[in-house]
Amino acid sequence: MTCTTCKGELEERSKFCSRCGAPVAGPGTGPFAPQRRQIEAMLAEANLLRMRAQWVDAESRCIDVIHLDANNVHSHSLLGDIYRDQGKLEEAGQWYQMALDLNPDSPADRAKLAHVEREREKRDAHRAVVPSAGGPVLGTQKLMGIISPHLALRSLTVVAVVFGLLVVALVLASRRNLEGAGKARLPGSGATSGLASNAAIYGSPVPTVVSKGPILASRSNAGRTEPATQVRPSAERLQSQKLTGYTGQETTLRNLVNRQLGVESDASVDAVTIDTHTQQVNLVMTYFGRDPATDSLRQELPQIALKALQSIFSADQTLLHASVNMRANLGSGLPEPAFGGDAERSGAMSPQNANAPPVSCFVYSWWAPALTDSSSAPEMPSTNSGIN
Fold first, then answer.
1. Rounded CA gap, 19 and 188, in Å?
2. Could you give the CA distance from residue 84 to residue 139 in angstroms, rounded to a whole number?
């Protein structure tokens, strides 16, 4: 009589094969006889996968066999072989011991268990013994559906990293919101152009624009009063003046233009605001020159305004549009709107306009009525001036 598993000779009246430990049962006998052929095919496939080092698939086949026959000795022994071949001696020993519990008379499983224990002793002799964290072994964990401690630790690490990234993102978003809330918003910056919005800060009237562009509505602030005389602040006062409600970029550009204009230009930048959505910069400037002569102002105001815009466009390459509102003493002793203009980067920075009159670099321009009472109307730029 031969063993149906290993084809070895069986002793008479033996219940298990002395060679492989398989139970001896005649055809049609045993509680799992209807599934015997299926189990044998699954074990043969698992052993083949083991020899091909396909550990996960081989282990899965053995687990499937245990689900069909929890007392199958061969599946427990084969799981021990799978873990032994991977160098997982502790788990291999556990499975060999479970196989011996099912079949204490199996010399093959006893020899395998002894071999695994000797290998464990040799390994432990060459390295420090790391205390085990306890808990079920890997094979039992899979049978019980338990996540291994190693996998649980990795999962917690991933969750902690994701949580940290979310916290950083929330902090950065909060800072951006605070900066946006603190940024000064110019009055009238909705439907009106840059000229109207800049001039509205000071409550000065903005007459109709004398240009080929759209017409700006007049604004006034009857409740605003100006001092009787104009006092030009010193350079130290301009440097020490602290603005509130402006971003760091706006304050930096304002200080940069004031340094480049210098005291000799008789002008200063009072406010710089940036609309990041339209990439437009708005300037409010004051001219301190004592000479209110029309010809002098018509020459100096556009020149100073263009120099300020060129400084800003050179410092910040992201800005594409600009609007300037300049106030000057037109004879009343008080600063009042004198010149305004809208310009594009392409026109203000174009080398082709280097020798052209400064006012021609503005797409739209406006002069106070006191500066237009001359024998000839002001020269207006062409519709394509400053546009490449």
1. 97
2. 12
Name which residue leads in pLDDT, 255 or 145.
255
Length, in residues, of the chain: 388
Q: What is the pLDDT of residues 136-190, one digit of tens each?
A: 445 555 554 556 667 778 888 999 999 999 999 999 998 888 876 655 444 444 4
Contact by Cβ (8 Å): 342, 366: no
What is the DSSP code (8-state) at residue 138? H
User: Residue for token digits 């808990």?
Assistant: 135
Closest to 148 (Cα-Cα) out of 136, 130, 156, 160: 136
Q: CA dihedral defined by 117, 122, 126, 130, rounded to 10 degrees?
A: 0
DSSP 361: G
Burial group, residue 358, by CB count within 10 angstroms (0-12, 13-18, 19+): buried
CA 186/CA 298 separation, integer angstroms: 27
Q: How far apart are CA 44 and CA 21, in angstroms?
A: 15
The values of phi and psi at residue 340, to 5°, are: -145, 150
Q: Does residue 213 have a pLDDT over 80?
A: no
Of residues 86, 83, 105, 107, the one with CA closest to residue 94: 83
113 contacts 104 by C-beta, under 8 angstroms: no
Q: What residues pair up with 16 in beta bridges, in sequence order?
A: 23
DSSP-H helix ranges across the chain = 36-51, 55-68, 73-85, 89-102, 107-125, 138-144, 149-182, 194-199, 235-240, 248-261, 294-315, 345-348
pLDDT digits (tens, 9 = 90+) for 93-131: 999 999 999 999 889 989 999 999 998 888 888 775 445
User: Residue 350: its pLDDT value, please?
Assistant: 85
Cβ of 147: how many Cβ atoms within 10 Å? 10
**Helices 73-85 and 107-125 sit at what angle, rounded to 10 degrees?**
30
- Residue 242 tokens read as 């602290």
Please give the backbone phi and psi of residue 127, each rounded to the nearest 5 degrees, phi first: -150, 160
Question: How many helices and strands, by DSSP H and E, does the chain display?
Answer: 12, 5
Angle at 259 between CA 258 and CA 261, to 5 degrees: 65
Measure CA 168 to chain center. 10
Decide: 256 and 315 in contact? Cβ < 8 Å.
Answer: yes
